[in-house]
Amino acid sequence: MFLRVVLLILLILSLSSGYNVPGSSTRNSRLSPRCGAFKSRTLFANGVADHEAVLTNLKTEESKLMSLLTDVRSKKLAALRSKPLRIAVVGFGRFGQFIAKSFSKTSTVIAVSRSDYSSVAKDMGVDYYSLKDFDKVIEKGVDVVVLSTSILSFSSLLSSLLPPLRTIGGSQPSTNYPLIVDVLSVKSHPRRVMLESLPPHCDVLCTHPMFGPESGKNSWSNLNFVFEKTRLAGKTYPDPQSTLNDPSSSMDAAFSIDRVERFLSLFEEEGCNMVELSCEEHDRAAANSQFITHLVGRILGRQGLKPTPIDTKGFESVLQLIGSTNSDSFDLFYGLYKYNGNSMDTILKMKQAMEEVEAGLKLMEREDVNAPGFGGDAGLLGFQRKNQLDDSPL
Amino acid sequence: MFLRVVLLILLILSLSSGYNVPGSSTRNSRLSPRCGAFKSRTLFANGVADHEAVLTNLKTEESKLMSLLTDVRSKKLAALRSKPLRIAVVGFGRFGQFIAKSFSKTSTVIAVSRSDYSSVAKDMGVDYYSLKDFDKVIEKGVDVVVLSTSILSFSSLLSSLLPPLRTIGGSQPSTNYPLIVDVLSVKSHPRRVMLESLPPHCDVLCTHPMFGPESGKNSWSNLNFVFEKTRLAGKTYPDPQSTLNDPSSSMDAAFSIDRVERFLSLFEEEGCNMVELSCEEHDRAAANSQFITHLVGRILGRQGLKPTPIDTKGFESVLQLIGSTNSDSFDLFYGLYKYNGNSMDTILKMKQAMEEVEAGLKLMEREDVNAPGFGGDAGLLGFQRKNQLDDSPL
């Protein structure tokens, strides 16, 4: 998205000022059949000097572009800051505080929680409301509501937000409702719960920032941020994608798109790797990556494994896996299991694989005539007896 | 061992030439109570200049020691080369060739195998004998016989070596027999088989080089080499340790010690991390490190896991684990299981842990009133129904 904006601006600049954007017009003209043949002959004739000139030109082009990019970026940041989003972070635990701190760089953050986090919020320089005063947050107006809670308490937290949201009124357009965002490690569950319970004109964005206060401590650069634009201007994914890109779409849709893009750009600005993925695909992939990692980590974590004097590289990564997965709460592990429909299948496949591996070993055992305790050492013991006869005490 | 030799030589040098070995006399005199108190006051008075002088002296000392060390090392290498061991590597597959190549730098290597590897041996510049001509190898004389075979074929290979070894004769001293060395990834099994079947005057060294042609491709530096001096001069570990260090022990024992140390120094010279560990302890540690790593890798390897767009760091190490363990043969995995008495216990504990983890999840499931499909969304669905009434089509 950000790149698209930058490219668009560069394109406009190139058209208005005659500046050649490399990789588009410049490269094309150089590679056009006639001109290219001529150029390559000239290059060959003039040798090194010509090559150096080309390099110098490219470097100049590069530095011009870099300065344009810096300019565009600072303008974009200024734009974001000049029209800051009002973001309510509901649930102000460790993760809520973690994202709120980053949001507060360019946005107005309102912390909301059941437990009293007023002093933490004060230290961070953000407003604080108790969850039971959420109606006041709505009254004052808010662009985005981020639900930062555990998987297990998601639906109960959401239900306590519904009465204030309903005060906004029944058949209002989506512009009146805040965009509702979840950040859970499972996606189909919150998607279903939000679509089923929120007013139909409420925009919904499902996200999974695949990092936390530990892994994102220093920077969010190159960390995965998964999202699905679940419902915008009353249209539910994947149905509305074409409609939304349609220039004839309503003002409502334009407003919704602008707001969700501004929110997403908060993560984009921090350098996140933006992964647009349906909730369904996310859960399918997560069961066979994140959940299986936690499952194996939990199983191995019960073995009391410790470093030995003879650790292999493989075992060192086993110990690392145990450390990283067992430091998370069992609640999270349970949530990944119960609230992702694919996880039970992962457990069943894991158990089956364990049995298959064991069966493979037993099969070889039956065929292994040399196996200890199966009479396989008979030949050797024969030699041993002969040795004993010849070769005195053993 | 090598360090002990170096330290001994340095000690002798320091006594004869008056050279101060730092860390012994020099440091002690500096830290003696009276002198130390005086020194620290002087240091404080003279400040930076004095500190720099101390540093310069230490650097000079360091470089003198480094040059002595280099000298000792090159002399040691020359000594090894001047009296090269004759080493028969029996079993000349990938691993046999891998160690033979390194041995041949300082030793005379004789390759022996069932399959015809004569051309590989020729390329490596080492002699080659077919296994059925092992009697000729014995006849010509050999210091060390390294059995480089799979766990599964170890006892059958050993039994085919016994007749030629028996020709050496019954009640000869250990100096007449070669030192027999195994390199298996399990240790109690080959130890038992060798002690039970080899002539009682045959020296036995059990080893596990914890690296191979892949991990030791570029260097053996800092790679673990596990060994147990199982039987030397008729004395079996752990019984003979004190006897062997006893200066009154026989010429036989001195010969055995010298030979085993010369062989071990081949690995020491390559920079291996030398780990002296009993076979029993090795197998106990290996079942809870190497075997469990392979077990998990094999189980995970059956799940058809692939990189996803949302891989976590933990999952990346899971994929790495699968890759490294499944590239080894199933025979090796089976060997680690069947020929290590502790491995069955590892499997049982793993299965139990899997059941405990599942039971933990089921327990939470029963208590989780919000769980999907358990009527936990009832509150939400209540809101949803109200919303439906107020808020037109859902």
From TrEMBL, chains A, B:
Keywords: Oxidoreductase, Signal. Coiled coil: none annotated. GO terms for biological process: tyrosine biosynthetic process. Residues 1-18 form the signal peptide. GO terms for molecular function: arogenate dehydrogenase (NADP+) activity; NAD+ binding; prephenate dehydrogenase (NAD+) activity; prephenate dehydrogenase (NADP+) activity. Residues 85-391 form the Prephenate/arogenate dehydrogenase domain. Pfam families: PDH_N, TYRAAT1_C. PROSITE patterns: PDH_ADH (PS51176). PANTHER family: AROGENATE DEHYDROGENASE 2, CHLOROPLASTIC, AROGENATE DEHYDROGENASE-RELATED. This is Prephenate/arogenate dehydrogenase domain-containing protein. It comes from Triparma laevis f. longispina.
